[in-house]
Write a structure and sequence with these properties.
Blueprint: E1 3-5, E2 10-12, E3 22-31, E4 42-49, E5 61-62, E6 74-76, E7 90-95, E8 105-112, H1 115-118, E9 125-134, E10 139-145, E11 155-164, E12 167-177, H2 180-187
Parallel strand pairs: 1-10
Antiparallel strand pairs: 2-12, 3-7, 3-9, 4-5, 4-8, 6-7, 8-11, 9-10, 11-12
């Protein structure tokens, strides 16, 4: 039975699950009634942060344009352009044993592609969630349903894995950003062209 989290809750991942190595982070969402004529393309991403709270290098940003980290610790399973269907819309695999020692936090985000042009925001999105699955046991261990408390935001920091006293924990963040992917990238030290 997975632990269901509320916004701001933190939970031990590795302490309560000894031997936990490989995670599948599933992110999902549905689009409310929307008649703007354009598809809703939401994109999951992961930022691998050092002690400074910023990426150590540009390649620490894992997204549809950079699917795999060179350490093989974080791998994006591909871009879903419509969010159609049940379950996870996008998935990111994390191998905790391969995460570089100076990566303190892995932040998971969802942004709306081309939100300004398409006039889309998270007020038009519902049933958003993040879930963490023990990949070896195929067992969901954590789930966080974001709820409906967004309106004009075009990017959301969903949750984060972070190191604490040699263990990995998960924090259900659920905070919105305006300015889409560019704003998130700037926040975490990525230069946007």
């Amino acid at each position: 039975m997975p632990i269901s989290l509320q916004k701001g809750q933190k939970v031990d991942l590795t302490k309560g699950n000894p031997g936990l190595k490989r995670l599948m982070v599933g992110l999902g969402w549905d689009v409310n009634q929307y008649d703007g004529g354009a598809d809703f393309d939401l994109d999951a991403a992961a930022f691998m942060l050092g002690a400074s709270g910023k990426v150590r290098k540009q390649e620490d940003f894992i997204f549809y344009g950079n699917l795999s980290h060179d350490s093989e610790s974080v791998q994006h399973m591909g871009d879903n352009l419509t969010g159609e269907g049940e379950g996870d819309d996008e998935q990111i695999l994390v191998d905790l044993t391969k995460v570089p020692a100076d990566v303190m936090k892995i932040v998971f985000t969802v942004t709306i592609y081309d939100s300004d042009v398409r006039r889309q925001n998270f007020g038009q999105v519902s049933n958003s969630f993040i879930r963490i699955v023990d990949e070896e046991k195929n067992e969901e261990i954590i789930r966080y349903d974001l709820g409906e408390d967004f309106s004009i935001e075009t990017a959301v920091v969903v949750g984060e894995l972070y190191r604490h006293n040699g263990e990995w924990k998960f924090n259900a963040v659920g905070s919105g950003f305006q300015g889409g992917l560019a704003a998130l990238c700037a926040n975490y030290g990525i230069e946007v062209a």
